[in-house]
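S.,

As promised, the iron/sulfur cluster run. Input:
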Amino acid sequence: MADLTTTFCGITSPNPFWLASAPPTDKEYNVRRAFEAGWGGAVWKTLGMEGPPIVNVNGPRYGAIWGADRRLLGLNNIELITDRPLEINLEEMTRIKRDFPEHALIASVMVPCEEQAWKDILPRIAETGCDGFELNFGCPHGMAERGMGSAVGQVPEYIEMVARWCKEATDLPVIVKLTPNITNILYPAEAALRGGADAVSLINTINSITSVNLDTMAPEPTIDGKGTHGGYCGPAVKPIALNMVAEIARHPETRGMPISGIGGITTWRDAAEFMALGAGNVQVCTAAMTYGFKIVQEMISGLSQWMDEQGHQSTADFIGSAVPNVTDWQYLNLNHVTKARIDQDACIKCGRCYAACEDTSHQAITMSPDRVFEVQDDECVACNLCVNVCPVENCITMETLTPGMVDARTGKVVEADYGNWTTHPNNPSAAAAE
Ligand SMILES: Cc1cc2nc3c(=O)[nH]c(=O)nc-3n(C[C@H](O)[C@H](O)[C@H](O)COP(=O)(O)O)c2cc1C
Ligand code: SF4
Ligand code: SF4
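Predicted complex:
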């Protein structure tokens, strides 16, 4: 059976599944049961400065987006960092590490952007026996207005500076948690690297308003008639997170930097995708909040079964395997031609493909009076919109034309050679370079 033991920037855990810093890791009671359920590690709910405890709202703190079956797709929150006293958190972390020495325990930290504040708190937290630190430069609400969280994460110079202070203050690994509320994820990732961080983790939550109550005319969640933007997470953010992970994994400056992948991970497959794109491990929040701690057991068994099928002995065997296949648009092969194919036996004659192609694509699907839907190759541009709107899985597939065949739409013979935009005759830059 595949060995799921994972070492991430020097921190070993029994599997690559860590709980992200959030309500699931808010207290000893949770983390103890999480580790018993099988989670490989936990990033403790973000710790702040000693002093008067953080104050959360006393009303709803979540907004949500659901699928048609009411499955939770996106979750928005306006919660702040831990509102429990630092001393209590540290005592609980110490007990957890003592009782679960094999599991990874990471302290997430957010204190004001002052050198002494970071240098004072890190050694104190290290006394718990924790395995490393995660610097929370991500929270988009509440703390950002106080000059912390994403207010730091959006300024590369601050990231570099704080990461450097932290590396001076501790010998433990320092992970910088990145905010996605920026234009280019490479800038903060490079800054973390320059500051000496051992790894980055991403993504934290995305600025969002999930809904507006049209009776009260206020954003939700609504507190006494008013709402504010919150942080968005859950399955809906996975594509954004995957792209950001891939960008860091493939960029020459940041390539090779350990990445902890976060964002919408709900199944073992989600986790494997993050890892294939370069994440050394993954962190999960919303899925645990939706389905409970035991969801990790499905993740563990699914991942190990898939690894066995693929012949992967350890996670290191496939981490980053998909990175070489991520490229820029101009390097995609323009000589690769496909056409949509409808499996008439599987078709339930709903007509969605017809409506989509007829109204918004290329009028390439015909509908007969008795509702037989057929693709016209001379119009099909192979956009695959019909595949995506068809309610029957695999009913419409894309067939690759082999070299030598004629594309009925363009009348051109399909070439065997790879040809991209950089050399395409229609590209003025390519023509100018000749
Ligand atoms: C209610 C809630 C509270 C959170 N609190 C924190 C926090 O204190 N520190 C932190 O770094 N991230 C916090 N997060 C962000 C998560 O750690 C994680 O980055 C994000 O939810 C994306 O992962 P997911 O899609 O699996 O939920 C919080 C998320 C939620 C939903
Ligand atoms: S692939 Fe696009 S163009 Fe071709 S039939 Fe489907 S929707 Fe129409
Ligand atoms: S969308 Fe799918 S099931 Fe519906 S008519 Fe088209 S091919 Fe058939």
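The domain at 6-325 is CATH 3.20.20.70 (TIM Barrel). The pocket of iron/sulfur cluster (ligand 3) is lined by residues 342, 347-353, 373, 390, 392, 395-396 (CB under 6 Å).

- D.
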